[in-house]
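Hi everyone,

Forwarding the result from last night's run.
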Amino acid sequence: MQSFRIISMLLAFLTGVLFSGYARQTGEETVEGTNGFAFRLFKQIENEGENVFFSPYSISSALAMTYTGAEGITKKQMQDVFGFPGDKEMVAREFHGLNKHLDTLNDKKIEMNVANSLWCQEDYDFLEDFLEVNTKYYRAGIEKVDFRNNHPEARNRINQWVEQQTGNRIKNLIPEGVLNPSVRLVLANAIYFKGMWEYPFDKSKTRPEFFYMNEKDRKRIPFMHRSVKVEYYEDELAQVIELPYSGKDLSMMILLPQEVSGIHHLESKLNKDLYKKYRESMFTKKVEVWFPKFKVETRYNLNKPLADLGMKSAFSGDADFSGMTGKKELFISNVAHKAFVKVDEEGTEAAAATGAVMSKTSLVKKAEFKADHPFIYLVKDNHTGTILFMGRLNEPFFYGKF
């Protein structure tokens, strides 16, 4: 029986060690920062007519590790982009608390795992405080590799680790040409989720229906269907529904524009405040749901989107990551993110990976919810509101039989 899996990987490649420390036991600031970042990044990477899918939690986690070593203007810019507090150890403690919370969601029908690792140049002197924060709060395993003399082997080892942590869904996260002898550190974060819908769809009720990419173009794809009591809300902008996963600790929130061509208007309004409003306004209602089966694969280079959001210093020769080595000699040369999602009658399977490379300077009337035109979807933790994955489905790709 197929299951619902969500996998996300985040890798940071640095010429020095990057890590983060952030801390409050409630994790509220981390959640607020990560969710705000999610919506801002979404608007940077979305392209006309293309599907979008990424893991803001994975990206934030990896860059939080680099934040641990950031100082000066580099630290301030990262703080503004990600919503991190100024206390770097507080950041680390909050991510530690959130990761421990995600660990508690594991049961017979849910598997949740967050893993971190540091891939360090074997003869490079990283500060012990930097390494200690990573191992203590992020539980990052430290691996010694030789980027200087054998970066192809280091690349293979890191990519193999990524594959193992993501159930073999994320392959070749670091393509050829990304690593070189000047790389000194790769930070990797992986989040893996496997589960099933709380209310699975009956496969016998899956039928071909039209999905309208816009008012002119459409394609016939398999649509799942069921009548179910779930959290629901609607306003003049969108219909909003939550499809819970087993145990109801996690769910997929779907934002469907009221108009076939309304996706851009919805995106223009979308931010953490609207997300909060929808979360707080939803109520239980019996809904007739039609939802497409789909899968999406994406790959992003995040250098420009992050710089455009205000994180310019980290990618330049003026970067200050002296908290890693005691010297201002490292900068981020590449941040790569790769993601995968698949949705069917029994649940969801998704994976995402990000890499940042640092190199040395150089109950009423039944509602109808038919997602037959572009929509935005979020996979979130219902206890904290943390957005683990976010995407826009503009054109579903058919797979399987119907």
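Residues 1-26 have pLDDT under 50 and may be disordered.

Cheers,
N.
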